[in-house]
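Lab manual, section 2.4: Encoding a predicted structure.

Procedure: take the sequence of the chain (85 residues), apply the prediction step described in section 2.3, and record the output as structure tokens. A sample record is shown.
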Amino acid sequence: PKRHLSNRYNICLATQSSIDKLDSLSEVAQHWSGPISLAVYVADDDEFSLLQGFVMFLQRCYDSITSQVALHILVPKSLHPDNKY
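Recorded output:
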């Protein structure tokens, strides 16, 4: 049913997640054919590395992640020097 709605109407699914819940992203993308805007907060460099590796895994395994998901990474101001990431 959700796939039908996202095909019929020009809408975007906007959501937020943490790294430990990203495993559900592939299932969401499987049931939702429209664009997905995903915000993920990372608290430190270790979490950023984990996020980066997991997103690369998801992109290799699920074409829908690459074609549908816009990933927005949020970091604390203290971790945001110019061009760090």
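Check your result against the sample. The first strand starts at residue 13 and ends at 17.
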